[in-house]
Design a protein that fits this description.
Keywords: Membrane, Transmembrane, Transmembrane helix
Structural class: mainly alpha
Transmembrane segments: 353-372
Helix content: over 70%
Number of domains: 3
Region (Disordered): 382-401
Shape: elongated
Number of helices: 20
Protein name: Tetratricopeptide TPR_2 repeat protein
Distance between the termini: 143 Å
Strand content: under 5%
Low-confidence stretches: 1-24, 397-401
Largest sheet: none
Length: 401
């Protein structure tokens, strides 16, 4: 029965793609595999050109644009009007004129309201704006274009991906669970879509589904092109599952293949967490801070490790306090940090009192005691016994007379 269902599903997909090639624009298949790197190796030349323009849009590298412009004349006869219009907008883009490109795409959405590729580019460009400014107008435009795409061809990896990313930030825990399940369903239908695969790992990690991350990582770690940030989430998931050796293997891969300081900093921090001795932890945390001085977690862990390794030394407490104070600058709402800092402050205050203020107070008391004691004795020696000050003055006057 299961085999029969799989055959039927495969047949439906084949019919769907044949229909798509007949009735849809040449570039509409972009929404099923929207990774620009994979578009470059597509068997469809029009998708190669789209991939080249998108790589230029992403990187600003003129070589991609030049290659696309050279190939464009050969594919123009086979393009539909909305396809060629969309490619023209990308061909005339240059870094700094993003607003003009968005305006031109919006004009195209009016001219070709149901065009899949035009609405997909509208989503892509407005998402760049939304990422930088959280602009509500851009948010509405993205969702509007996503709705049009799904009304035209149904649910697809592109629309599911961007809808998931947009809705995730403000979703409740239950809504996030539903978003994750829907993304899982799409991933099952399109297992080779790397963007969906990576987003699923991110969402699984944020939901604390470390076993799911582990399962998803089985295929991902064998890909030729991997994102080191995703690999770090996988390493952290293995660590949370107490599989430290697997976690260390992935961290070693990151250290050999990444040049992003933030990722490297977090990787060294994780190595510190995995380490069993305080000296190793301290060395790894210090390396993490050297790579990213604003890594609040590494600063907090270094300060805490120094504090716990030797609580009896004033110097250690002072250094710990410096690191923890820096951590609090970048993570001001961390209540654990505040509590540890308060404990250290109390200890330093007590020790300062015992080592500095108390001895000083004792010395001052001793001085007062000596001055009072010997000063009073000296004045008593000068006076006759049993006489007052007035008596002594009278006696001296009589002696003179």
């Amino acid at each position: 029965m299961l085999r029969l269902l799989k055959k039927i599903s495969f047949l439906i997909l084949c019919i769907f793609f044949i229909t798509l090639n007949i009735y849809a624009g040449n570039l509409d298949s972009y929404v099923y595999n929207f990774d620009s790197d994979q578009l470059l190796v597509s068997s469809q030349r029009s998708l190669n050109v789209l991939g080249l323009y998108l790589k230029y849009y992403e990187t600003g590298n003129e070589e991609y644009k030049t290659a696309a412009n050279q190939t464009m004349p050969y594919i123009l006869p086979s393009l539909k009007p909305d396809d060629s219009a969309a490619l023209n907008v990308l061909s005339e883009y240059f870094p700094g004129n993003e607003v003009e490109s968005i305006n031109r795409i919006e004009i195209l959405t009016n001219n070709y309201p149901n065009s899949v590729i035009v609405n997909a580019l509208n989503v892509l460009m407005n998402y760049e704006v939304y990422q930088k400014s959280k602009n509500t107008e851009a948010f509405k435009k993205i969702l509007s274009s996503i709705d049009i795409i799904e009304e035209t061809i149904g649910e697809n990896p592109f629309s599911t991906y961007y809808r998931s990313v947009l809705m995730w930030e403000t979703a409740s825990p239950q809504e996030k669970e539903n978003i994750f399940k829907n993304l899982e369903k799409v991933h099952f239908s399109y297992p080779l879509n790397r963007d969906i695969h990576e987003l699923l790992i991110i969402e699984a990690f944020e939901l604390g589904k470390y076993e799911d991350v582990k399962q998803l990582s089985m295929n991902y770690v064998n890909l030729s092109q991997k994102d080191e940030r995703i690999m770090f989430l996988i390493a952290l998931s293995y660590y949370n599952l107490d599989e430290k050796s697997e976690s260390r293997k992935i961290v070693d891969w990151i250290l050999q293949n990444s040049n992003k300081k933030a990722v490297l900093s977090k990787s060294y921090e994780l190595l510190g967490d995995i380490s069993e001795t305080n000296s190793q932890k301290i060395n790894y945390y210090k390396t993490a801070i050297d790579l990213d001085p604003e890594n609040a977690e590494a600063l907090a862990k270094l300060g805490t490790t120094l504090y716990e390794s030797n609580r009896s030394t004033t110097d250690n407490l002072t250094i710990s306090r410096i690191y923890l104070t820096k951590a609090l600058m970048y993570d001001p709402d961390n209540s654990d940090l505040k509590e540890t800092l308060n404990t250290i402050d109390r200890k330093l205050t007590t020790r300062n009192f015992l080592t500095t203020l108390l001895p000083l107070f004792i010395v001052i008391l001793a001085i007062f005691y000596i001055v009072f004691r010997f000063g009073s004795k000296g004045s008593n020696l000068k006076r006759p016994e049993g006489g007052s000050k007035e008596d002594s003055l009278t006696t001296s006057k009589e002696e003179k007379n």
